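Narrative summary of target 7.
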Amino acid sequence: MFVADLHNDLVQRIMEGEDVTKLTSHGHTDIPRLKESCINLQVLIVWVSSKSAEPNFFDKANRMFDELNKLSNVDEVLIPKSLQEIIDGIHSNKLLLPISMEGGEAIENNLENLYHFINRGLFYFGPTWNHSLDWVSSNYDEKYNKTKIKTIGLNDFGKEVINICQENNVLIDVSHIGEQSFWDIEKISKKPFIASHSSVYKICPHFRNLHDDQIIAI
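Modeled conformation, tokenized:
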């Protein structure tokens, strides 16, 4: 059986200087524990917050990519940058650690930056975390700050972001985005999209979770 876990924030501990290539005494993840677990593919997340005191989101995200790519130096670990590399890694029994992005702050409203991360091997792209951007609204803001956000759903730039990702085989992740953003993505999508870490609203009525019609749409 092949087991994939689609969302892990391990990079934050790496950026704080922790060596996760060794068995650690805290946190939920390190490379030795992943190797011993049943997980074959663990998606690692690049995440920069728009509320950060450091506004250089593009540069910060690149540093996270750099640090995560260093994990490929560990024996039996592969940072795949394409579906074919994932398939090859499965056949060679590698621990697969593709890199994805939560929140579009890092592209800084610049499509060239989006292409940059796609070329770095972006596996999936989640347009928002809790904070809305100029071009897409989050589930948090649609619920609590609807009168204060610039865009409800996707604007034209946001639609272009989604199209570029799908044209370049980057999955779109709808966890954390608002309902209107969800349905705007559903309307224009030409390829499947995912919810990497959402639950079911009827089970847990939290703004992050998906209603039945959204689950059916996926």
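The CA atoms of residues 59 and 101 lie 14 Å apart.
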